[in-house]
Amino acid sequence: MARFFPIIFVHGWGGPGDLVRDFSADDERDPYVGWNTGHRYNDPDNWNKLRNTERNFEGLVLRLVKDFNYYDASNDEELADFKNFLGLNPPAPGESSPPGLREVALNKALWIFRYYEYNAEHLQLSDEVKRLLADELRIRNYFVEYPAKQDLGGIPYYAALLAMKIEQIACPECHHIKYGKPERGPGLDLKRVALVGHSMGGLISRFAIQYNLFGVAENVARLMTMSTPHGGARYASAAQLLRFLPGLREDDIQFFTPKWVTEFLGGQTPNPPLNMTPTDVFCLIGTRHNDYYPVARQLPRTDGIVDQREAYLEDHPYAYVYNTHSGEHGIRENQDAYQSMRRFLFGDLHVRLLITDVDYQPSRRVDKEEAFFFHYFVKPRGINTHLNEISERAENQPRPRTLTELKQRLQEKPYIIFDGFADSGALVERNARAGFGVTKSKQDFPHLQLEYSSFLSDLWVGGKFLGSGSKMIPLTVGTRTFSLDDQILKARLRVEVRKRD
């Protein structure tokens, strides 16, 4: 059964404008700032494949409201409406809430944390609040000087503000900022929250948890990051040369360079530790850069800004989607990320797909000098979207190897082609369940569709297509083995499905 948590979307760095925003009318009208900017969803393979394909994507917030009946608190800064819900008695079975109100679901609410709001002139924090934040950071072993030589800023400061927001939502008593002054007061007492951080928002979330600011580490149930430079943004180091420009001050850029992230967050092996179970953290990595702004198009193995090799955490699941850092093809604004997010946040299954062996088909003549590479696309049944993509266009496929080298590599360690999540209750319409490759006895289980292709490496053309195939994988709990066959090669696939805690 799905578990639901209040969700906080944590905004990433928006460039120099974040530090000089005057909180204009445009900002006030759009509290979402990208989190609800949906874009037209194009079939990733340019054809429908005989199934229903969603042509439009409305954005993460609206989809959560529509699909899971979440309460959008983005425009309810005082939480007046939500507090009214808190005072209602849940309806009896078979009955509805009073007219005009939705069903009461206290664990289904979402917020958007925009750290830059506190740079707005009418929201600037008082000295008392700044001293409270600085004291909390020092208590948690991150030294800051206050009064400081310049305004508090950067990831530690934003993480302390985020921790206050988590405390307000999760705890019975919390810190408030009222009329610019800190005070103690009642919280919503919703126990635990889920954080979804984009870009620097993932580092802000990590810092709040790793340093246990305001004691909120135990109140974070799940953490998902999108396009977050967990190893530090290597291109941020070059950007420091531009500090003479307005907004590019030392207290911003330095906080996501590899040097700072490694020293104070431990890089891709968190230190201080996150103290979260492996399956309560998930990293989504963007792989598309050729449709981003002109300079970024020249940065291979990135999403336009963050290098793929920086964007995951060791010992936690991660997946690749063919999205840019933001914008029309952005990782927040498209269907791929939403489908991964909903399965991570609410899914009750942890699924791993691993290639354990590969060989020629019996009729194939063996040439020991031939080198091969492969593409893998993992999709949920009935939705033409990618939960993970390993391919040449994503620039993340394994390097070409001969059959002998492949077999040796797989003996040392299986090759993971999916490490993610599924929801045992997320089924397509009944008439679509008994599709091609789905056995009758398993048609009422959720399935993943694995599409794969093999290529012969060629120095002149890159790769010569050899064969392809598809496999429908029922997600029944346990470990099973499947055969993946194409016209030339065959592979052994191990499927591990476990219930999440």
Q: Can you describe this structure?
A:
With 501 residues, the protein is an alpha/beta fold. It has twelve helices and 18 strands. A seven-stranded parallel sheet has the order 2-3-1-6-7-8-9, with helices on both faces. Strand 4 and strand 5 form a beta hairpin. Helix 5 (127-139) packs across helix 6 and helix 6 crosses helix 7. The chain is globular. The N and C termini lie close together (11 Å). The model is unreliable at 19-23, 47-54 and 241-248 (pLDDT under 50).
State the end-to-end CA separation.
11 Å
Q: The biggest beta sheet, please?
A: 7 strands, parallel
CA gyration radius, whole angstroms: 24 Å
Q: Helical segment tally?
A: 12
Largest sheet, order of strands side by side?
2-3-1-6-7-8-9
Helix-strand layout with pairing:
Layout: E1 7-10, H1 17-20, H2 25-29, H3 60-68, E2 71-72, H4 80-86, E3 109-113, H5 127-139, H6 155-170, E4 173-178, E5 181-186, E6 193-198, H7 200-210, E7 220-226, H8 234-239, H9 250-253, H10 258-265, E8 281-286, E9 318-321, H11 335-346, E10 349-360, E11 371-380, E12 388-390, E13 401-402, H12 403-412, E14 415-422, E15 447-458, E16 462-474, E17 478-485, E18 489-499
Helix pairs in contact: 5-6, 6-7
Main traits of this protein?
501 residues; seven-stranded parallel β-sheet; 21% helix; 25% strand; globular
